[in-house]
Amino acid sequence: MSHPAAALSARCNPVGAWRLHPGQAMSLSPKKTAVLRIFCGRVWVTQGQPAGATPDSAGDRFLGPGDVLAVPAGVRLVMEPIAARGDTGPVHFDWSDAATPAAPGRFAREVAAPARELGVALGRSAWALSRVLRGLLGYSEFLVAGRGRVLSPLESLRS
Questions:
Q1: 69 with 114, same domain?
Q2: Containing domain of residue 83, as a range?
Q3: Which of 2, 19, 30, 127 could pair covalently with 34 via S-S, beta carbons 3.0-4.6 A apart?
Q4: Domain stops at, among 80, 100, 120
C-alpha cells in the first residue's frame, strides 16, 4: 500500500520551469509584469502592494493547479507550498513575462463590460425603433382616414 504523498507525486508530471519543495519559500520581484501559473500542488502567495494599486491587488492568496496570477512590475511576491501531512512532492509552477495583457480587473469585469453591452443593446433598440417608425410612416396614407378628405358615414362603415 503506497503513501498518499507518493500517489500525489506520481500524478504530477514534472511540468513547468520551477519547483518548490515543502518547507521552502521563494521571493520573487519582477521588473516587468509577470505571470505565475501553478501546474501541480498548492501554494500560499503573499503580494506586496505596488505604488498606486488597489487593496484588492495586494495580500494573501491561495493558488492550486490551473490557477494563474498576474504579478505587476515592482511587486514583491513571497510563495510557500501548502503541503498535506507527509507530502514531500514539490509544487510545479511556471514564472514568465506577461506576453498577453493581464486578466481584467474587478472594475472592468463588473462595470465596464456590462456598460459596453448595455450601450450595444441600446444602440440596437434605437435602430429597431427607427425602422418601426419609418415603416409606419410608409403606411401613413392608409392610417389617415380618407387621405385628407372627410368620409361620408357610408364610406367610414366600409373601411
A1: no
A2: 4-100
A3: 30
A4: 100
pTM summary value: 0.49
Select from 30, 33, 37, 40 the least CA-distant residue to 7. 40
Grid coordinates given for 46: 503573499
| Residue keyed to cell 493581464 | 102
Torsion of CA 96, 35, 66, 23, to 10 degrees: 80
Considering the domain architecture, whether residues 10 and 84 belong to the same structural domain is answered as: yes
Q: Average pLDDT of 14-34?
A: 81
Grid look-up 515592482 returns: 74
The DSSP string of 67-89 is -EEEE-TT--EEEEEE--TT--P
Residues 81, 26: Cα–Cα separation, whole Å: 9
Buried b (16+ CB within 10 A) or exposed e, 27-41: eeebeebbbbbbbbb
> What tens digit of pLDDT does each residue of 110-154 get?
888 899 999 999 999 999 999 999 888 877 666 665 555 666 677
Nearest to 75 by CA among 56, 48, 110: 48
Domain count along the chain = 2
Strand pairing partners for 95?
36
Question: What whole-number distance in Å separates Cα of residue 63 and Cα of residue 16?
Answer: 15
Cβ-Cβ contacts under 8 Å for 134 (sequence gap 6 or more): none
